Amino acid sequence: MRDKIQAALEQLDSYVQYGNVRNRSDALPQLNYTVFCRKTAKANQGRTDLTVYWEVSIVRENEVPMAEVERYLETLGNIPGLKVAGDPIQFWAQYMDGTKCQLEAVALSFVESRKRRLS
């Protein structure tokens, strides 16, 4: 699933990173980027299903336009096996340390359900 998400995100943004980019200046070629990672996973009681939650964060200088958020939701929601999670979309804004540049980030949650085979 990671490769499918990465490929879809690269259609939307030229700077896509898996994992955490905080405190890594080499991972931030510019202020506008997208980062994604697995957030949580849980098995059902029968241990035959595994639900994996993915988080995609869009970071932009000044603000993230809602039209862009909608494009991300539509593009990622069209990946087979991945659905938009019922979590609220989270927004936050902050100034970059040592600058007067404001960034806004949007966190989107997606859910992947996987069938597991028990041996």
Structure overview:
It is a single chain. The chain has 119 residues and is of the alpha+beta class. Helices cover 19% and strands 42% of the residues. The chain has helices at residues 2-12, 66-77; strands at 16-18, 33-43, 49-61, 82-84, 90-95, 102-115. Strands 1, 2, 3, 4, 5 and 6 form a six-stranded mixed β-sheet that branches. The radius of gyration is 16 Å and the shape is elongated.
Keyword list:
119 residues, 6-stranded mixed sheet, alpha+beta, 19% helix
What is this entry, summarized?
This protein has 119 residues and is of the alpha+beta class.
State the shape: elongated
Kindly state the number of beta strands: 6
Order of helices and strands: HEEEHEEE
| Beta strand % | 35-45%
What is the oligomer described by this structure?
single chain
Tell me roughly what share of residues is in helical segments.
10-25%
Mean pLDDT: 86
SSE topology:
Elements: H1 2-12, E1 16-18, E2 33-43, E3 49-61, H2 66-77, E4 82-84, E5 90-95, E6 102-115
Parallel strand pairs: 1-2
Antiparallel strand pairs: 2-3, 3-6, 4-6, 5-6
